[in-house]
Amino acid sequence: MKGAKIIGTGSYLPEKILTNFDLEKIVDTSDEWIRTRTGIEERHIVADDEAASSLVVNAARKAMEMASIKPQDIDTIICATISPDTPFPSTGCWVGTALGIEGVPAFDVSAACSGFLYGLIVADSLIKAGTAKRILVSGVEILTRITNWTDRTTCVLFGDGAGTVIMEESDDDSGILSSYWGADGSLGDLLIQPAGGSRMPPTHETVDKNLHTIYMKGNEVFKHAVRKMALAAEKVLVKANIKPEEIALFIPHQANIRIIDATIKRFGIPREKTMVTIDKIGNISSATIPISLDWAVREGRIKKGDLVLLDAFGGGFTWGATLMRW
Ligand code: ACO
User: What is the CATH number of domain 176-325?
Assistant: First the structure.
């Protein structure tokens, strides 16, 4: 069975930047608290006329240019998001139409911050099974539209953006070597957008109570994130018989610099081999890993043959890791 590899990456961040100092004027917080507790300095915020699909389209155009392909060369569209254009149709369908791709399957994956890795694992399986040949996999979020701007424990964390990769069958030993994923819905209430679904449909009361925004018990989530990201990374390394010191670049989900540091400490992966983008983009849930991967590729931090480890944890709870040879 042939493997599946990434042949192009692209990312897009909205123009407007919101700094920690801007947030000091909105809620009772400080640049010092946000930087030391999270590692975030600034985040990007969408313009009024932008939606998740338009962010993906901008990122996808760059990925297609890198891969030297046209939209018509794509035969499957997967979008990981918890902030879709519309509950349905899926963001994947809107992206397909905007790119002029007709008639190919398009769907969304909902796994919060692990969403992009879930999408990558699905794409890898579809290619290995021969069901698809060339897949557009994106992570996109407009979290600032589901943020409670009166809650200082969450509104300082999130941002907007999109990252995209194009995957196809590998003709050499490059591509995804091993993956691991999991979920535990019993802890779902610790990180949740409570209203807007069939359990709690929108009413005036749900809007008045800010129940359409992200609710998070941050310190509880923190403990689970460190444990599960370490577990996922260990599983993929053992499965592929690779030692942590062989990893050329570690790209973790960017939720908190302290979670990243705790995870790399467990594995003995140095900071120099770890992609850190949280200072510039904040937590963009499913988009942080593909954006960080795109920056790493364009900065020349990944060379042909390098081992790259991606690792995430998010609402659900969900977690996952993927090890690939570039
Ligand atoms: N400014 C100033 N003070 C604040 C702020 C703020 N923005 N936010 C909270 N505080 C205060 C709290 O009120 C509390 O004060 P108290 O001690 O007087 O009660 C104090 O700071 C400590 O609060 P904690 O919540 O214990 O702070 P913690 O160190 O845990 O940091 C944080 C909070 C940053 C949210 C952290 O817990 C975290 O990163 N959690 C994990 C997030 C994560 O991984 N999410 C998963 C992915 S997200 C997704 O799936 C959408």
Answer: 3.40.47.10
